[in-house]
Structures are given as structure tokens and as C-alpha cells.
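pls design
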């Protein structure tokens, strides 16, 4: 199975890497889902193995700083948008179709998130990817699309 998603940290440039299977299989993500995934994936080094218990953190201040034209100096909507994006991603399924494998395993359906937790007091969210996704975040090697973090939504 090809590698699915991640990020590559190369000096000061940061890249987001998604496999073509994820791009084709995840359907249309909402803008809040895309923004949340961007902040999560830019924390992942796709060239390194990811530990099973790895937690990724998003806080509304970082979200607000990444999208200043949207949130300005007030972060309340940023927190709401992160929560909305995570709620939707936790229910979102990815259908991967394989054309070069046996008919017994032509389609695989996986979810993005195993769980997430939030702290309103610190405006912070902790996210854990599902084992299926985690198995494909690291050690990227082929069948992927790569773009700079600065080019995200």
C-alpha cells in the first residue's frame, strides 16, 4: 500500500504531503477541515516514523495567526472553526480504491481521527490519528502530492 499523507520539514521550508489515494478518496473537505488538517500535517515529518501514541496539538492562537485575514485580532471564531473542523473530520471516511490489487481487497475505508480532546481554558485541541492513517503518515516514498505550507488555505 502506498504512503498516504504527512509533511516534510526541510530546513525552514515546510511542506504538506498527501498521497494521491487520499486526495482521490477523501472527497471534498470543508474549508475548516482543510485548515485543521493543514495545521496537523505541518507538524508531521513524513520522512520519519511516527510513534503510535503521537499527539498533535492545535491551539486557536496558532490557527488565528495562520489565517489573520479571516480572524483578525479576535480568536473566538478560530476556536469554533477548529472544533467544527475536528468534529467533521472525526466522522469523515476516506475510500481508497486499488486498481492493482486482488479483487478481494479493491476498496479500503478508513477514518481520519481516532480521537480529539479540547480545553476551552487553554483554547487547545489534542488530536490522535487512526492507526490506519498513522501507518501511512511516515516514511513517504511514492504516489504523493507535495505543496508548501504557505500555499494552504
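designed seq:
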Amino acid at each position: 500500500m502506498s504512503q498516504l499523507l504527512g509533511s516534510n520539514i526541510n530546513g525552514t521550508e515546510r511542506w504538506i504531503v498527501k498521497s494521491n489515494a487520499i486526495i482521490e478518496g477523501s472527497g471534498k473537505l470543508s474549508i475548516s477541515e482543510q485548515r485543521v488538517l493543514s495545521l496537523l500535517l505541518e507538524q508531521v515529518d513524513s520522512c520519519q516514523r511516527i510513534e503510535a501514541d503521537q499527539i498533535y496539538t492545535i491551539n486557536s492562537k496558532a490557527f488565528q495567526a495562520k489565517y489573520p485575514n479571516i480572524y483578525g485580532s479576535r480568536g473566538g471564531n478560530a476556536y469554533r472553526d477548529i472544533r467544527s473542523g475536528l468534529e467533521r473530520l472525526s466522522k469523515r471516511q476516506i475510500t481508497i480504491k486499488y486498481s492493482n490489487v486482488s479483487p478481494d481487497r479493491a476498496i479500503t475505508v478508513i477514518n481520519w481521527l481516532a480521537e480529539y480532546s479540547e480545553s476551552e481554558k487553554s483554547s487547545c485541541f489534542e488530536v490522535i490519528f487512526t492507526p490506519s492513517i498513522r501507518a501511512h503518515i511516515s516514511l513517504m516514498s511514492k504516489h504523493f502530492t507535495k505543496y508548501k505550507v504557505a500555499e494552504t488555505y
